[in-house]
Design goal:
Shape: globular
Distance between the termini: 51 Å
Pfam families: Glyco_hydro_28, Pect-lyase_RHGA_epim
Keywords: Glycosidase, Hydrolase, Signal
Bound molecules: 2-acetamido-2-deoxy-beta-D-glucopyranose
Number of helices: 5
InterPro entries: GH28_Enzymes, Glyco_hydro_28, PbH1, Pectin_lyas_fold, Pectin_lyase_fold/virulence, RHGA/B-epi-like_pectate_lyase
Helix content: 10-25%
Domain Rhamnogalacturonase A/B/Epimerase-like pectate lyase: 45-102
Number of strands: 25
GO molecular function: polygalacturonase activity
Largest sheet: 19 strands, parallel
Oligomer: single chain
Length: 449
């Protein structure tokens, strides 16, 4: 082999290597789950060591409290794993502690008691000023954590069952005294992983990380009947660095709704939701698939949602706020969304949601800007889009591209409707409203397309 031949040979080899590397990089799925390191714990205990009985009848509240007390007070290096073997473990609500893994074996079910007297009241969240449904406190979530660090809820797809019927019926019959409990709420906590778990029949919102950072939720299944009231799937609230991936969510309310506090209380608390990623989520809901709001008083920024598959929806995408909310919603990117059957494909509105009390400031107008929605495909969508900004605070920088939202056959199809909005739209069908199609407007979106 001559020197030249050899160089060509080496060069060729390097090119092949590069191509292989590129192919590998492409095959590797994009993920943000690395923001929280997985921890494997050497110290393991089982709920049965603390008298836990998985017969579906015995109340295990004491067993969970004692097991978690043991984890908290022995604080073993590297934390402790609490194993829940197959079986149905009925229990009242309980608190988690730091440096623990709650591990549900295949066939393990942690089931909430239907005795509502077993649920203690907590004080309102400062950013809400009162319970979300009713004035005053609110019931503690079924699985609760406050001020924690390094908590993992995982296993072999075991189930956390809120047995929400009793609460939904109280809501329907207007006999609730306070705001219903979330299924899992973590407050002011960091380094959280929730993975390979099924969440079922939450009394109210399912997963509620509030004032948290570094939260990974993946391979979760979240289910509740379509007619169950307010059973939002995941509500990152005044939280940052939240990564939601590879999950199936079908509930009675928004699948994922990014929030940050309510009117004057949320404005005073002033904690935004920031750096929220939602990727490869599938599901169905009479309300929204990907939502921001309506409680956004601390602001919401840097949200990325992509590869979302939706069916039988109220709204595919819903960005919502209201007067009195204040707060800035900005830099929201939503792409690669497929939806089959929806009342509205895209809704962005400044007149959604109620107020905590009469003391909200009607001059506290929200700002909504820099929203990029692209590569959205929908079939059987009754109305492609509705954008309703505020007269004194028009929405701006709303950039839409490569969107096709096909009509519903045999139903009255509505056109796009817009008011008080500026931005641009290219390759959008049906043709969107004139507010978004004037050439001057498209210029403002040039960097987005
Ligand atoms: C759980 O923790 C909260 C505050 O972090 C506390 O108020 C409540 O009493 C605890 N509840 C139970 C049932 O231990
Ligand atoms: C948040 O939790 C930390 C402990 O991790 C605690 O020191 C701090 O006081 C808590 N802050 C609030 C507002 O509860
Ligand atoms: C987890 O269990 C649910 C039912 O509880 C099921 O629908 C889902 O497919 C399971 N997920 C995996 C990854 O096995
Ligand atoms: C959950 O299951 C997926 C797929 O099997 C796996 O890659 C992931 O590591 C699991 N999560 C945890 C926290 O073990
Ligand atoms: C917008 O948000 C994305 C995350 O979705 C982030 O990577 C980017 O830096 C943000 N851009 C600005 C201008 O803040
Ligand atoms: C337009 O969006 C569709 C559906 O999400 C996608 O498959 C297609 O690649 C996009 N086209 C362009 C030119 O980006």
């Amino acid at each position: 082999m001559s020197c030249l031949d050899f160089s060509i040979f080496v060069c060729f080899g390097i090119i092949v290597l590069l191509i292989n590397c590129l192919a590998l990089a492409n095959a590797e799925e994009v993920t943000c789950s690395g923001i929280v390191p997985m921890r494997y714990r050497d110290d393991k205990i089982s709920i049965t060591d603390f008298g836990g009985v998985g017969d579906g009848v015995t109340l295990n509240t004491k067993a969970f409290k004692e097991a978690i007390y043991r984890i908290e007070h022995l604080h073993r290096r590297g934390g402790t794993l609490l194993y829940v073997p197959p079986g149905e473990y009925l229990t009242g609500p309980f608190n988690l502690t730091s440096h623990m893994t709650l591990y549900l074996a295949r066939g393990a079910v942690i089931k909430a008691t239907v005795d509502t007297e077993e649920w203690p009241l907590l004080s309102p969240l400062p950013s809400y000023g009162r319970g979300r449904e009713l004035p005053g406190g609110r019931y503690m979530s079924f699985i609760h954590g406050d001020g924690l660090h390094d908590v993992i809820i995982t296993g072999e797809n075991g189930t956390i069952d809120g047995q929400g019927d009793v609460w939904w019926n109280m809501w329907r019959q207007r006999t609730l005294k306070f705001t219903r409990p979330n299924l899992v709420e973590l407050l002011n906590s960091t380094s959280i992983i929730i993975s390979n778990i099924t969440f079922k029949n939450s009394p109210f919102w399912n997963l509620h990380p509030v004032y948290c950072s570094n939260v990974v939720i993946n391979y979760a299944t979240i289910v509740a009947p379509a007619d169950s009231p307010n059973t939002d799937g995941i509500d990152p609230d005044s939280s940052s660095h939240v990564c939601i991936e590879d999950s199936y969510i079908s509930t009675g309310d928004d699948l994922v709704a990014v929030k940050s506090g309510w009117d004057e209380y949320g404005i005073a608390y002033g904690r935004p939701s920031q750096d929220i990623t939602i990727r490869r989520v599938t599901g169905s809901s009479p309300f929204a698939g990907i939502a921001v709001g309506s409680e956004t008083s601390g602001g919401v920024e840097d949200v990325l949602a992509e590869h979302i598959n939706l069916f039988n929806m109220g709204f595919g995408i819903h960005l919502k706020t209201n007067i009195g909310r204040g707060g800035v919603i900005r830099n929201i990117t939503i792409s690669n969304v497929y939806m089959d059957k929806a009342r509205k494909g895209i809704k962005i509105s400044g007149d959604v949601g109620d107020h905590p009390d009469e003391n909200y400031n009607p001059k506290a107008l929200p700002v909504l800007k820099d929203v990029k929605i692209k590569d959205v495909w929908g079939d059987r969508v009754q109305q492609p889009g509705l954008i309703r900004g505020l007269k004194d605070a028009p929405f701006s920088g709303i950039c839409l591209s490569n969107i096709s939202l096909g009509g519903a056959t045999g139903q009255r199809d509505l056109p796009w409707q817009c008011s008080d909005v500026s931005g641009g739209a290219v390759q959008v069908s049906p043709l969107p409203c004139s507010e978004l199609t004037s050439s001057q407007q498209i210029g403002a979106c040039a960097s987005s397309f």
